Amino acid sequence: MELDATASRHTGPRNWLRSVEWLIAAGLHPQANQTTLAVARDLARRMDYSTGHVRYDLEGTADRLGIHPSNVKRHVKYLRQLGSLAWAQHGTRRNVRREQGLPGYAATATVYAAVIPAVYDHALGHRIIGTGYGARIVRDYRQMPDTRTPATTETPVDNAPSEPVDNPAKRSSAPPSLTSATQEDQVQMVGGVTTTAARSHKIPSSPSTTAKTGSKKRATILGAAVTAAGMQLGDKLARAIRRRAPWTRKATHDQLRWVCADMGEQQWTEDEAVRFAVETGHAQAAGFAWQPDHPHRLIAAALRTADVNHQQDQVQVELDVTHSVAWEDSTAGREAARHASLAALFTAAETEPEPQRSDEDRLRARLDWNNWPDVAHYYATDPDDALDLYGVRLCTYAIRMDSKSRARQEVWA
After folding, report:
1. Is CB count within 10 Å lower at the N or C end of the chain?
2. Sequence-separated (6 or more) residues with CB below 8 Å from residue 342
3. Residues 2-21 pLDDT 10s
4. Which CATH code, of 1.10.10.10, 1.10.10.60, 1.10.3370.10, 3.30.230.10, is assigned to 9-120?
C-alpha cells in the first residue's frame, strides 16, 4: 500500500511496535507469528524516529535474525497485509551512486513507512482526526486535574487534518501523527520557556503528588513486588491465554498482562495459566451463554480467591502439625508394635526395630501440597497411616484433586 492510498495513520517506531504486537496477539492475520514480530523489532530498531521511515535491507535483516531471506520477504508481506507498513519508496535498479557522482553501482533501496491501522485505534478507543496517512490521534485532557492559573487562557486547537502542527518557538512543523491534537478545553501555557520539557503535552503534577507516588513501589494484584522477569513471563502467559481462551479477548493485552503479573512472579507455565483461565471461564459460564465485558477482572478475582484459599490451607497445615498424633498412638504405630511383639515371641533372632516417625517427618511430608497424587495413592492403600503422616487437610485436598483429575480425563476421553 502506498502512502497516498493507505488508510493507516503515520506513527513513530515505539507506538508502531506496540501496535504490531497487539495486532499479532489479537490473531488478525492467521500466519503472523513470533518471526513476524522479530522482523518488526528489527525494523523498529533501524527506523527513523521522526519520519518513521526505514530501509528494507533484506539481506541484512536475514543475517541479523538468522533466517532465510525468503522468510523475511514473507513476514514483511504479512506486516503490509496487517496495515502496519506502507511503501514510502519502491526499490529500483537505478544506480544512485552515478547520480551522486560516485563510482560503482548501488540500486535504489526500498523504504517502508511505519503506519497504524484503524482497527487498532478502534479497539483501544482512540479518537482520530483526519483520514489516511495524515490522520492524528486526539488526547483527551478533560478528565485530568485542573492546573489553570489566572495567567492562563483557553485556546481552541486547529484540528485540520491536512496541516502540520505549528510551533511558534522555532517556526518548524512536526509530522502529524507524532504530534497529538488536544481538546478545546485544554489550557495552554503563556510566557513559558522554549525547552523541550516545557513544550511537552503532559500536564505537570504537583510536587507533593510526585513525591508520594514516586516513593511507592508498584505491586501486583496479590501485593507482590513487580520485577522485570515476572512482567516478561506475564506478557508471555497473557498471549497464551488470549490465544487459547477466546472468552478473554474482550480485554486488552495490557489488561491481561497485568493480571498475569502474579502468575509470572510465581513462575507459572503456559499450560498452568491457560488451565486456570479455562477453569475460571467454566465456573462463570464464560464463552457459552455469557461473554463478559471485562474478562480480566474475572481472572483477577479468581486469583485472589485462590490466594485466600491457599493461605487458609497453609494455616490448617500448621494446625495439623501442632495437633498431629504421635507415632506410638497412631494405628500404624500400634500395628508395628504388635508385629514386633509377635516376632519376639516366635523367633530368637534379633530383628531391626521399626523406625520411629517424628513430628519433623510429618512437618516435611505436609509442606509440599504439589505431591497430592502420591498422597491420594497412599491414602487408597493405607488410609490410617496416610492421615497420620499427611494430616486430614492434605489428604482431603489430595482426594479432591484426584477426583477432579479423573473427571477431566473422562471428559477428554
Report:
1. C
2. none
3. 888 888 999 999 999 999 99
4. 1.10.10.10
